[in-house]
Amino acid sequence: MAEKLKIIPLGGLDEIGKNITVLEYGKDMIVVDCGVGFPEEDMYGVDLVIPDFSYLVANQKKLRGMFITHGHEDHIGSIPYAMQQVNCPIHGTAMTNGLIKLKLEEHRLADTVKLITHKPGDVVKAGCFQVEFIHVNHSIADAVAFAVKTPVGTVVFTGDFKIDPTSREGMIDLARLGQLGNEGVLALMADSTNVERAGYTPSENTVAEGLDRQFKSCDQRIIVTTFASNMHRIQAILATAQRYGRKVAVTGRSMENMLKVAQELGYLKVKPGTIVELGALKNVPKNKQVIVSTGSQGENMSALYRMAFNTHKQVEIVAGDRVIISASAIPGNEKAVSRIINELYRKGADVVYEKSEGLHVSGHACQEELKIIHALVKPRFFIPLHGEQRMLQIHSKLAQMMGMNPKNIFIGQIGTCFELTGKTCKVGASVTAGKVFVDGTGVGDVGSVVLRDRKHLAQDGMLVVCVNLNAEDGSVLSGPDIITRGFIYVKESEDLMEELREVALEAIERCQRKHVRDWSAIKSAIKNDLSGYLYKTTKRNPMILPVIMEI
C-alpha cells in the first residue's frame, strides 16, 4: 500500500495559541511551529499551557527538523520544553532564531540545540520534505510562510500573516504564492484568527500617523505600552520620539530582551543617544521623556502594572503623564486591561487607548485578504488553522464562497490525523494530543485533579478537622479542633464552629459504638457528616480534610 502524507495538528485548533503541526511521510517527520497557550481563568496557579509532545517522543527517530514561521510566543514558546524531550535542528529566520536563542539560554539548552538561520527564498531539505521560506507581513519582523514539497504534493502553511503593501519589509510575496498555485497545491493550512472581520487589515503606517498626533499634542512625559515583539511599532515610536527631540527608555524584561535582539540584528534604526537607561531620565525634562513599557495586556508583573500600582522601583505615574496603550486586549484579558486603565485615570494620567485613535492595527488577515490567498493558492484541499471552532467554521464558509467543494474542506481538532494522497484526503485515527500545564518549574505535574481541587479551594475554601485518638480503645483524647481557610472568619462565627465540633465528635463516637477502628472509615464519616451539615446550614461546600492522630 502506498505511503500517505499525514498532517497532524497537535495544537492551534479549537483554541487560540499553542500552535504546532506535524507532517509525516514514511520514515520522515517535520514540525511546523511550537508555541504556548496562556492559562484560562479557572487554571489556578498555571503559568503556561504547552502541547503534549508524546507523539514526537514516540517518533523522535523520524524527526528531521522543526520549522518556525515567526517569533511570537504562541509559535515559539514551547520550544525549550520540546527540546528537553526530543532534539532536532530548528530552522527559522534571523529575528525568529534570535528570540529562540534567548529562550534556549534561559533553559540552558543553547549549547545542545542546533539553530539554523534562513532568509525568504531559501529551500531546506529535511528527509523527503523540501521546505521553502516565503516572506509575509505580520506584526513581527522576519515572518514567513512555508511551501512544503512532499512526495504527494505541495502543502502551504501561511503562518500568521496579513497583506500590507506599505510595510517597511516589503509586501508579502503574493507572486510566489501565485506561482505555487499555478504549479498545483495539494493542501492549504491557513491562519483563521481574524476571519470574523470583514474587509482588510489597516497598514502599520496608520499607527505611525496616530503616534505622531499624540506626541505633537503633548508637552508632558509620554509612556507607551505595546507588544514587545512588534518591532515595526517600536521603530515607529523611536522615530516619532526622535522627531520631537525626546529621549527613550525601555522598561520590562521582555521589551529589554526584544530591543537587544533587534538592535544586534540591525532591525532598529535609531540615532545614537536616543535610547538611554531608565535611570538617566531623571536628568531629562519631563516633556522630553518617552518610556516604552510592557503591560499592554494587563499582566500582573508587567512594568505598566507596577507603575500603575506604585510598585515600580524607578517610575511613578503622576498627573499629566500621557499613557498610550498601542495594543488591543487579547480575548480574556479585557478585565485586566480595564483595571490598569482605571488605576491610571485615578492617578490623573491622560490615557489614550481607543481604537479610533489609530494606535493599533492587527497583524492578522481579514476576510478580503484571506480571499486573495485562496484565489492565488487554489488548493485541492483546505484545512483551517489557528482559531477557535467558530473561526474555523467561518473560514470554511469563506473557502466555499471562493468555489471550494465542502467535501475538500476539513475541520479537525488537536490530535486529528489527516491522511493525504495526491488526490484524496481523509481523517485517520487520532494521535495523543492535549494540554500540559507548566506551574513554576513543574511541567505536567498539575493535572485535571489538581486543577479541580484548586478550583474547589478558590470557590469554597477549606476546613481541616484535627483530632487525637487513644491508640488502645479509640477514645477521643483531644479535639476535634477545626481550622478554616477561605471559608468563614472564625472570630465572627464561633457558634457555627462549636456546632461543627459537635457534629465531628458525634461522627467519631458513632464509629466507636460500631467498633470501627479503620482511619479511612472514621475520616469518611467525619467528612460526610460535616459536609451534609454545612450545606444544610450555609448552602456552601468547602473542602473538608479530617486529620487523625493516634497517641
* Helix/strand class: alpha/beta
The backbone outline, from C-alpha atoms, is: globular
List how many beta strands DSSP finds. Answer: 25
Helix content: 25-40%
Query: What are the segments in which pLDDT stays under 50 over at least 5 consecutive residues?
Result: none
Strand order of the largest sheet: 7-6-5-3-2-1-19-20
Q: What is the first-to-last residue Cα distance?
A: 71 Å
Radius of gyration: 29 Å
DSSP summary: helix tally = 15
pLDDT averaged residue by residue: 87
What's the main sheet like? Answer: 8 strands, mixed
Give the strand content. 15-25%
Describe the structure.
It is a single chain. The protein contains 15 helices and 25 strands. The chain is an alpha/beta fold and 551 residues long. The chain has an eight-stranded mixed beta sheet. A hairpin with a 6-residue loop joins strand 23 and strand 24. It is globular. The mean pLDDT is 87.
